[in-house]
Amino acid sequence: MKILMVCLGNICRSPLAEGMMRHLVKQENLNWEIASAGTGNWHIGKAPDHRSITAAKALGYDISQQRAQQFNQLMFSRFDLILVMDRNNLTAVKQLAKTAEEREKVKLFLDDDEVTDPYWDNHLFQPVCKQIEDRCKEIIKQLS
């Protein structure tokens, strides 16, 4: 299983999901590949936002070595499942799909809801981090 997590800048939500999912998958001895990307190009090569790093660390996850990358069309062939944090990014990713099969790989991370972008509110990082952790655990149960 190869899963890609996607948000806008790849510094807040999707790196949290990548790091947590990677850690949890390893604990379960699953041979899955986990990565993340952003639809925007502002943060390519940069570490996750320091507030995401801190929130993840409080729950026992180290995401500090991850680096942002931009989503591109080639990722459709590389990943089995593309989980997007909100509807705007869902639309952006689906617009890059060339086939119905590629569009089918793209889903909201929370099924029918959005993960709030905590970037503009420091107080959102901890609850968003916990929400992502809980959902990662659900996804592992669903897919393994």
Describe the structure.
The structure is a single chain. With 144 residues, the chain is an alpha/beta fold. 43% of the residues lie in helices and 13% in strands. It has 6 helices and 4 strands; from the N terminus they run E-H-E-H-H-E-H-H-E-H. The protein has a 4-stranded parallel beta sheet, sandwiched between helices. It starts with a strand and ends with a helix. The model has no long low-confidence stretch (mean pLDDT 97).
Q: Specify the biggest β-sheet.
A: 4 strands, parallel
Distance between the termini: 9 Å
**What oligomeric state do the depicted chains represent?**
single chain
Q: Tell the overall outline.
A: globular
Percent range of helical residues: 40-55%
Query: Which percent range describes the beta-strand content?
Result: 5-15%
Q: Please identify the structural class as seen in this structure.
A: alpha/beta
Tally of strands:
4
Rg, rounded, reads: 14 Å
Concise account of the structure shown:
With 144 residues, the protein is of the alpha/beta class.
Descriptors for this entry?
alpha/beta; four-stranded parallel β-sheet
What are the SSEs and their pairings?
Layout: E1 2-7, H1 13-27, E2 33-38, H2 50-58, H3 75-78, E3 81-84, H4 87-96, H5 100-104, E4 106-108, H6 125-143
Parallel strand pairs: 1-2, 1-3, 3-4
Helix pairs in contact: 1-6
